Input
Amino acid sequence: MTDWYLIIGLGNPGKDYEQTRHNVGFRVVEELARRYGLSFAKTERKAQSASGLIRGKRVILTKPQTYMNLSGEAVRSLVDFYKIEPDHLIVVCDDLDIPLGTVRLRKSGSAGGQNGVKSVIQHLGTQEFSRLRFGIGRPPGKMQARDYVLGVFKGDDAILAAQVIDRAADAVETWLIEGIEIAMTRHNGSIDDPKPAPKSTPPPRNGSEST
Output
């Protein structure tokens, strides 16, 4: 048993992919790192990682460097090395079947066509881990899904995506401190939907603060 929490953002490595729809998972963990002054300075287990405290919890923020379809290789290696329990793991990824502007957390389930999540399930041998799906919507017209997910957000979509990244990072913080059920209740849905107010005042955003 370990007290580490592993927060995985899925995406593809390299500058060519940084702003693509497929890399929203990377951008969410990067936002969490920014909030708490953590740096992706370490490369380990086929991943870039940033470790430290978020709201008093010991976390490892991770960006697998295996490319999306092989994400499970890095995740399995990190889970084994840090002895991560299933309820201490969350995966953040894009989802074609959810509209842009919407986040959806689940505590388990199938890959739903997301190849990175499929790889994680295959390598862990279980579907019993939390995941946050970041809706990117379906490609327009006859555009192929591959071309769409490797395209970048533009115009109003880019503005909306930035707002959802902030919402998704909030949702991961809620998962970390209050658990998946409360995170689902508070954050699932469109960013235009009113969010239930927290029942208690959360701890301050201070990486050195312990609870």
The radius of gyration is 16 Å. Residues 155-178 form the longest helix (24 residues). Strands lie at 4-9, 42-44, 47-54, 57-64, 89-95, 102-106, 130-135, 189-190.
